[in-house]
């Protein structure tokens, strides 16, 4: 909260009295936030309705008649989620979504379950989005199918590179394809509503139907399975709540507007496409997506059909950006709470959590390679984690409202409680129906991630205890200071090192290592002679070593001269070359000495950089 307070600008203050801008231009508006953080949810209309149809097709044409009722149930759940996450955004403006809610109201262990499930879902979203986008590309150009893994990795590198430049830059890049896709789908729905029959069926011609023959029974289990499959369209709804700090001030209001806009647009597209599926009596076929059939039926096999296809392909590939916007913020909060390495809390100049972005890219790349770029391998694992997060967040919000008891709290708690029941049932249904298809991996992975978080937390707790964090330390005192300077020759580097050492310590000693062979003994004798002639006022200590080692003899000498009341510092002079590649020309002796001294002693290590330029 202190960070947000420092970043906020009070509009009531005169311009010259307002705090300086700390990077607001690198943050999101409601529109750019919708473009950067909702691609996952928007793109889900390409596979959400199809997932419903493919399940209901098992019951034949009669089963397809339940497409619209199942979609309306999903749209109702979407409305509850949007209303609930508007409240989460207002109550937890630091972001973090279900993790932040659970940490405050449900305890550390529950918050880690929510965090682990969201981490897995974000990573899987990247892999599914990229493979689905590349699958659309290889469907149009079959010759590229053999190279699909490399194409997936290329798309991942592109999205990662854009996000490393900042979330605003990524939003600007993705605004155009997002707008083209949304407009295309809305036009498809609007035109289709005025048609009584498909204008074209060319896309499905010649493709085998996957509709089951002589199947007329539609049971509860089938409807639940269709509902569970269609719920993949709801992933991404929580991303805006997770990334509230990425918005410009007023952050809460902008994030809430983006959340409502996302829910409205997504709901209209899902219901509209389902209405057209029923109107055109569409039947799923092999090798052609349901969305492609709808575009063909509504717009005809014209240029408009290809616009929808290419817009879908691009948005599917880029919908991984939702994870790049939400996961780094979640990792930052986990790092802040000592559940992940603190490096994940660092920001680059453009308000980018660079280490979170890179970690997400590396894990996603591994998934793409292991899955062979196949979407169907990854989809069964998708959407389970996010429903766990949905449920945890809404249960936590019920406790939030009961604790505050502000005006209207009963209605808000009722909304969250109702949502928790719906999403909890959905989580059970999704897990049960997809368990044998790979959902068991998520059931195992979530506890393993929680255990990893707790291991990191215990390590930080031990470090904090030993450092005395949170306690008033003893007053500092001055010890006698002994500076040890490793040298091998006389040069300007040696002079700079002794200048620095005599400025820092009460006593300075130069040390050089002499090995047993004749050449080294001759070089050591020459150095001793030159040192005596130079007479810098610093003694030169010659350390003999039978083995060809450099760091260990110096570390042994440091141990020998260490004594109570004496602070020993090893000052290692090193050359800083003009060019990065020139570092390859160096012998790396400084690194070897530093490693040995750090490993075997408690001495302070000081590495002096001497710039050649």
User: Judging by the overall fold, what is the CATH architecture of the largest domain?
Assistant: Up-down Bundle
* Integer-rounded radius of gyration: 31 Å
Quaternary status: single chain
Mean pLDDT equals 79
Kindly report the name of the CATH homologous superfamily of the largest domain: Amino acid/polyamine transporter I
What fold name goes in the CATH topology slot of the largest domain? Amino acid/polyamine transporter I
Tally of contiguous helical segments: 25
Helix content: 55-70%
CA-to-CA gap between the ends? 44 Å
Number of domains: 2
The H/E string reads HHHHHHHHHHHHHHHHHHHHHEHEHEHEHE
| Unreliable spans | 1-22
Q: Give the strand order, joined by hyphens, for the main sheet.
A: 3-2-1-4-5
User: Beta fraction of the residues?
Assistant: 5-15%
Record field, number of beta strands: 5
Structural class of the secondary structure composition?
alpha/beta
Overall geometry: elongated
Supply the CATH class of the largest domain.
Mainly Alpha
């Amino acid at each position: 909260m202190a960070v947000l307070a420092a970043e906020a600008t009070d509009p009531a203050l005169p311009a010259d009295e307002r705090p300086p801008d700390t990077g607001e231009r690198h943050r999101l508006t409601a529109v750019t936030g919708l473009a950067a953080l909702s691609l996952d949810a928007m793109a889900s209309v390409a596979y959400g309705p199809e997932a419903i149809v493919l399940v209901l097709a098992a019951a034949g044409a009669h089963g397809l008649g339940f497409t619209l009722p199942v979609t309306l149930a999903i749209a109702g759940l979407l409305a509850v989620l949007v209303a609930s996450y508007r409240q989460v955004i207002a109550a937890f403006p630091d972001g973090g979504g279900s993790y932040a809610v659970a940490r405050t109201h449900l305890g550390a262990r529950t918050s880690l379950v929510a965090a682990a499930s969201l981490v897995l879902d974000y990573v899987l979203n990247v892999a599914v989005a990229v493979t689905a986008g590349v699958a659309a590309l290889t469907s149009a150009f079959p010759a590229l199918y053999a190279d699909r893994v490399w194409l997936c990795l290329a798309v991942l590198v592109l999205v990662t590179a854009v996000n490393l430049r900042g979330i605003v830059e990524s939003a600007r890049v993705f605004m155009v394809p997002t707008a083209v896709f949304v407009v295309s789908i809305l036009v498809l729905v609007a035109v289709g509503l005025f048609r009584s029959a498909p204008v074209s069926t060319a896309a499905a011609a010649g493709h085998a139907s996957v509709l089951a023959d002589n199947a007329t029974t539609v049971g509860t289990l089938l409807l639940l399975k269709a509902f569970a499959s269609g719920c993949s369209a709801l992933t991404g709804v929580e991303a805006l709540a997770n990334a509230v700090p990425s918005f410009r001030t007023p952050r809460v209001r902008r994030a809430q507007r983006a959340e409502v806009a996302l829910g409205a647009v997504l709901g209209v597209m899902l219901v509209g496409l389902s209405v057209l599926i029923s109107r055109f009596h569409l039947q799923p076929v092999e090798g052609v997506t349901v969305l492609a059939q709808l575009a063909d039926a509504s717009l005809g096999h014209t240029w408009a059909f290809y616009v929808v296809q290419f817009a879908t392909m691009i948005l599917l590939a880029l919908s991984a950006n939702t994870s790049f916007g939400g996961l780094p913020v979640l990792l930052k909060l986990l790092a802040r709470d000592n559940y992940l390495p603190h490096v994940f809390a660092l920001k680059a100049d453009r308000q980018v959590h660079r280490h979170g972005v890179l970690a997400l890219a590396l894990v996603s790349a591994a998934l793409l390679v292991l899955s062979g770029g196949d979407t169907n391998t990854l989809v069964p694992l998708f959407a389970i984690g996010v429903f766990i997060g949905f449920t945890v967040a809404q249960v936590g919000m019920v406790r939030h409202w009961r604790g505050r008891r502000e005006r209207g709290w009963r209605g808000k708690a009722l909304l969250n409680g109702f949502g928790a029941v719906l999403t909890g049932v959905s989580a059970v249904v999704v897990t049960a129906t997809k368990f044998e298809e790979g959902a068991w991996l998520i059931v195992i992975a979530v506890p393993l991630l929680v255990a990893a978080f707790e291991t990191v937390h215990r390590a930080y707790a031990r470090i904090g205890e030993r450092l005395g964090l949170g306690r008033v330390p003893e007053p500092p005192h001055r010890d006698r200071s002994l500076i040890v300077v490793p040298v091998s020759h006389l040069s300007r580097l040696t002079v700079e090192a002794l200048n620095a050492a005599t400025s820092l310590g009460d006593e300075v000693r130069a040390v050089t290592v002499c090995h047993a062979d004749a050449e080294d003994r001759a070089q050591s004798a020459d150095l001793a002679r030159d040192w005596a002639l130079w007479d810098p006022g610093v003694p030169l200590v010659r350390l003999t070593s039978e083995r060809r080692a450099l760091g260990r003899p110096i570390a042994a000498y440091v141990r020998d001269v260490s004594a109570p009341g004496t602070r020993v510092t090893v000052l290692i002079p090193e050359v800083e070359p003009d060019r990065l590649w020139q570092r390859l020309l160096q012998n790396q002796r400084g690194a070897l000495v530093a490693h040995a001294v750090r490993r075997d002693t408690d001495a302070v290590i000081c590495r002096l950089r001497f710039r050649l330029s």
